[in-house]
Amino acid sequence: RFSTYDSTCQIAQEIAEKIQQRNQYERKGEKAPKLTVTIRALLQNLKEKIALLKDLLLRAVATHQITQLEGDRRQNLLDDLVTRERLLLASFKNEGAEPDLIRSSLMSEEAKRGAPNPWLFEEPEETRGLGFDEIRQQQQKIIQEQDAGLDALSSIISRQKQMGQEIGNELDEQN
């Protein structure tokens, strides 16, 4: 699954680059039929990979291999890929939004290229099924417990210091 997702993202990035190359050729008045054929093949490959990812996700959720929250996270990633595919297709056909808008939305993924694969992230057991606010409340509770523990430790250390001083005073008196 992970390598399929990575390769799908790479194909989408390659398509964006090829479309940009083709558009540069067309602005110069040159034709780029080889690039057009390559882009069509890559778009078909992208479509097939997205369908494969959908199938893998549906199977994983249906067989309970992953949690519902993990399924939702992967579905969001898949939705992003589908959106990229639509933008690429519109850019390829020169339809829809301004080319600069399409280019900026497609190229924004280039900045994410160095980021770790989000599908490899395993959510800890303590936060599974919790929303953002619930996780924040849980963190605040943990911090409060740690503060209470530090206060108790501080009072114990103070008491030991006092006992040490009393023992020292008693030894001085006995000597």
Describe this protein with a few key phrases.
single chain; 175 residues; mainly alpha; 5 helices; elongated
Q: What is the number of strand segments?
A: 0
Alpha plus pi helix count: 5
Taking the alpha carbons of the first and last residues, their distance comes to: 77 Å
* Major sheet: none
Percent helix range: over 70%
* Order of SSEs: HHHHH
Point out poorly predicted stretches. Answer: 109-114
**Strand percent estimate:** under 5%
* Shape field: elongated
Determine the structural class based on helices, strands and strand pairing: mainly alpha
| Rg (CA only) | 29 Å
Taking all residues together, what is the mean pLDDT? 79
What do these coordinates show?
The chain has 175 residues and is mostly helical. Helices cover 79% and strands 0% of the residues. It is built from five helices and no strands. The protein has helices at 2-27, 33-62, 68-92, 99-112, 132-174. Helix 1 packs parallel to helix 3 (68-92). Mean pLDDT is 79; it is low at 109-114.
Topology (SSEs and partners):
Blueprint: H1 2-27, H2 33-62, H3 68-92, H4 99-112, H5 132-174
Helix pairs in contact: 1-2, 1-3, 1-4, 2-3, 3-4
Structure summarized in a few sentences:
The chain has 175 residues and is mostly helical. The chain is 79% helix and 0% strand. α1 (2-27) runs antiparallel to α4 (99-112), α2 packs antiparallel against α3 and α3 crosses α4 (99-112).
